[in-house]
TrEMBL record:
Location within or outside the cell: Endoplasmic reticulum membrane
Taxonomic lineage of the native organism: Eukaryota, Fungi, Dikarya, Ascomycota, Pezizomycotina
The protein's name: Alpha-1,3/1,6-mannosyltransferase ALG2
Pfam families: Glyco_transf_4, Glycos_transf_1
The reaction(s) this protein catalyses: an alpha-D-Man-(1->3)-beta-D-Man-(1->4)-beta-D-GlcNAc-(1->4)-alpha-D-GlcNAc-diphospho-di-trans,poly-cis-dolichol + GDP-alpha-D-mannose = an alpha-D-Man-(1->3)-[alpha-D-Man-(1->6)]-beta-D-Man-(1->4)-beta-D-GlcNAc-(1->4)-alpha-D-GlcNAc-diphospho-di-trans,poly-cis-dolichol + GDP + H(+); a beta-D-Man-(1->4)-beta-D-GlcNAc-(1->4)-alpha-D-GlcNAc-diphospho-di-trans,poly-cis-dolichol + GDP-alpha-D-mannose = an alpha-D-Man-(1->3)-beta-D-Man-(1->4)-beta-D-GlcNAc-(1->4)-alpha-D-GlcNAc-diphospho-di-trans,poly-cis-dolichol + GDP + H(+)
Keywords: Endoplasmic reticulum, Glycosyltransferase, Membrane, Transferase, Transmembrane, Transmembrane helix
């Protein structure tokens, strides 16, 4: 692009997950290229967000947090839609001049706002970033849940297809996108997530690791697993693989399982207990360290160490000192942890599925890709811990670092994002009309009202119809008023 542009990111909840890391990195990268960048979100907790969102590096605007994220633990997708519409209403009405001056929107996770933005802001372009189709992320354990999801699956596909451009985080996600939305004629291109290749190791990183007794002066080789404590991450795989080492080998090694853990999340608590029981069944001595104080009581002869909610500095230390990273999830959409390990020269063992197929070079080039079979993983772990020479390990580490720097840097991602914006800026597009915006409301109202009537709740079916009709008329009136207030919209 020949001149600086105004770019606005629309993101539902700016926490500290992988999707949020990508959005923050993209925003910083585009800002460094000279563009004016803002992030609009429904929620951003200063105590639970990335540094760039609270130290002034990025301008983050929080609006539309008036509605709950769920109702009695349910209807999360419905609430997410309402919250995003509320956010976009603030954006359009709070500063219409800035809204109409916005050149590009980068929307991710939820696409409901795409037709609204295009309807009001004819001169802007909208790029949708698909981390993974929501259609494939939700379970359908009952007929009612399956019917309930029908309008929302349709809305996801319909509104996503109205974006000027669509990008995804990996070729694997691109294949799943085409499977989820076969009628969308926009071909999604890949913009890979990144890691900060210019990050300088800080002194406290070293101190953070060395102060823990189980690491200080230990000559045990570390097999490291970094994942959230969720069953779909299949951490069982590396526990079983580690148990396949001989008793003599286990005396020279230790499996450390670190990752996201929240006491409020039932699955985190339950899965941690399940993993402890698995260790017991395999005769693996284990312990859990939740903070520095509890680390003082960790026996020196344990085989498996659990580190729930590991601090980022300790995680960095572990990635640098581990002999191998064991990345267990199958069909992971992308997976940023293998890149973090490769950047510091640590070899990666991952399943031969999903995102790691695009990041890890097999055959010991930068790591290994194997089917999720414990015996296979035991063999590779043995190789990485006890069979590689120092020269081979050093060469592998250099190849891994080079691959990350050449293909997955923040600068590379920013340049690719800018290229995608240039593409959609030149692409011809059809105008969005009133019925394009309101079609999702009509479809969802009809389906949900029909579902309520089918289960005998005709009273709620009438209420749903009344709300849907009222929304249709209200939006029509607001669109007329908005354009009267600011003809540029």
């Amino acid at each position: 692009m020949d001149e600086d542009k105004v770019i606005v990111f629309i993101h539902p909840d700016l926490g500290i997950g992988g999707a949020e890391r990508l959005i923050v990195d993209a925003a910083v990268g585009l800002q460094n290229l000279g563009h004016t960048v803002q992030i609009w979100t429904s929620h951003c907790d200063p105590a639970h967000c990335f540094d760039e969102c609270r130290d002034g590096t990025l301008k983050v605007v929080v609006r539309g947090n008036r509605f709950p994220t769920s109702i009695l633990g349910r209807f999360s997708i419905f609430c997410a839609i309402i919250r995003q519409i509320d956010l976009i209403t603030y954006f359009l009405m709070e500063d219409p001049d800035f809204a109409s001056a916005t050149d590009f929107f980068i929307v991710d996770q939820l696409s409901v706002c795409v037709p609204i933005l295009r309807y009001f802001l004819h001169g802007s372009r909208t790029l949708f970033y698909c981390h993974f189709p929501d259609k494939f992320l939700t379970s359908r354990k009952s007929i009612i849940k399956s019917i309930y999801r029908i309008p929302f699956d349709w809305i996801e596909g319909y509104t996503t297809g109205l974006a000027d451009g669509i990008v995804v985080n990996s070729k694997f996600t691109a294949s799943m996108f085409r499977k989820a939305f076969p009628k969308i004629d926009v071909v999604p291109r890949v913009v890979y997530p990144c890691v900060d290749v210019n990050e300088v190791e800080k002194a406290q990183t070293k101190l953070e690791g060395e102060k823990y007794p189980f690491l200080k002066g230990s000559d045990r080789k570390i097999v490291l697993s970094v994942n959230r404590f969720e069953r779909k991450k299949d951490i069982d795989l590396v526990v079983k693989a580690f148990s396949g080492l001989t008793e003599e080998q286990r005396k020279k090694a230790r499996l450390i399982i670190a990752g996201g853990y929240d006491n409020r999340v039932a699955e985190n608590v339950e899965y941690h207990i399940e993993l402890e029981r698995l260790c017991d069944s395999l005769n693996l001595r284990h312990a859990t360290c939740r903070n520095y104080i509890s680390s003082l009581t960790i026996p020196s002869d344990i085989d498996v160490l659990f580190l729930p909610s590991v601090p980022s500095s300790l995680k960095s230390f572990l990635l640098r000192t581990a002999s191998i990273l064991a990345y267990t999830p199958e069909n992971e959409h992308f997976g940023i942890v293998p890149l973090e390990a490769m950047l510091v020269g640590t070899p990666v063992l991952a399943t031969n599925t999903g995102g790691p197929l695009e990041t890890v070079l097999d055959g010991g080039e930068t790591g290994w890709l194997r089917p999720p079979e414990p015996a296979e993983w035991t063999r590779i772990i043995t190789t990485a811990l006890f069979e590689l020479t120092d020269e081979e390990r050093t060469a592998l580490g250099e190849r891994a670092r080079s691959r990350v720097k050449d293909n997955f840097s923040k600068e590379s991602m920013s340049a690719t994002f800018q290229k995608e914006l240039e593409i959609i800026y030149k692409t011809r597009r059809r105008m969005i009309k009133f019925h394009d915006v309101m079609m999702p409301v009509v479809v969802s109202t009809v389906v949900i009202a029909g579902l309520l009537a089918g289960v005998g709740r005709t009273d709620w079916a009438y209420v749903c119809g009344f709300v849907g009709g009222g929304t249709y008329l209200t939006f029509g009136l607001l669109s007329v008023l908005a354009r009267d207030m600011n003809p540029r919209l």
